[in-house]
């Protein structure tokens, strides 16, 4: 009889073609003009799940984009039950002129497939469906019970996901969860993320005059909101890279010596950072390593700024207002609401009397740390070792996946972040890609993970 891993190898070409079909759907959740495309992606995903053999598949309506739910519970009540999470929505493609291939026409160059959503998260989501297919089309059953939750709002803050999980707590009851929305350290260096930063995201505006003014008539007498905002934002860090918001670090849980020793095993430093990003030098808190700065320390970044005239040519004005979006990545035990309030209060204090300041919170999420000695984490490590031939390195990720904390707090289901992307996959940027050997090995790793989880539980 063909084994699930053999089946996965035999059908690689078809799997990639199916993934291409999925990637062609421009499911950009942040843009209202793509709402129909987001729904189309959900409907395509639901139909594909049915073809694979997943049962009770449905589109769960929310106040926004639908959640695609399905389950397979044929392993019996004694077997572990796993929640598999992923998201089928994608980021906008701007700037379009920097893409080397059309973002929604998947293109294979060498061993990479290029498309928006290739690795974040359609490609990684698809790994789980192909692993399930490999089992169901060979042995006719899965070794564990699985409940699939695929949302369409991850890129806009998962605004309806927590409500869905809370309202369906009994239906979603599980012993663990699995999420593939992270990356490994290298094609031949498997790793497992055990910690994620949280997020507090705000938008601020300073308003000066009622409307744009002629800079020749009013310059020197009316404070320029663009310059005001620039001065305010420049005060959010000190010369050492530390955030200056009062109380920002009060709740930060210190890194233990054991954690610092473990993170020091990650083969990534300033030279790798420069090569990966193109920056001329690293920046940040000198007393922490690069790995610690981007995964285990809280940060503040300006994500965008806008004011006045930005078109071609010249227009001599004093802009009426200036705005900025600011994200703060958080670590245990920082609270997103508390940090957002502190940031707004500090910026309000920095605003001069020549402008009016306003702010709003866009979204947030809690940080999370997952125990390394749990059965799911050890099964994941063993699965990587079986397929990759190497024991994975445990590391912390700088990004935010709010559902991780939700699974732990609401369902009591410790998640495993079994990611297969690479650090240079250009997430949220032009020329997003997925390294196809990782796609193939990812399917086999999930196959092994499900088997090992059943044996070790």
TrEMBL record:
InterPro entries: Cyt/Met_Dipeptidase, Peptidase_M20, Peptidase_M20_dimer
Keywords, comma-separated and alphabetical: Hydrolase, Metal-binding, Protease
Pfam families noted in UniProt: M20_dimer, Peptidase_M20
Hydrolase as UniProt keyword: yes
Record protein name field: Peptidase M20 dimerisation domain-containing protein
Domain Peptidase M20 dimerisation: 194-353
MF terms in GO: metal ion binding; peptidase activity
Cross-referenced NCBIfam families: PRK07907.1, PRK08201.1, PRK09104.1
Presence of the UniProt keyword Protease in the record: yes
UniProt xrefs under SUPFAM superfamilies: Zn-dependent exopeptidases
Source organism of this protein record: Ardenticatena maritima
GO biological process: proteolysis
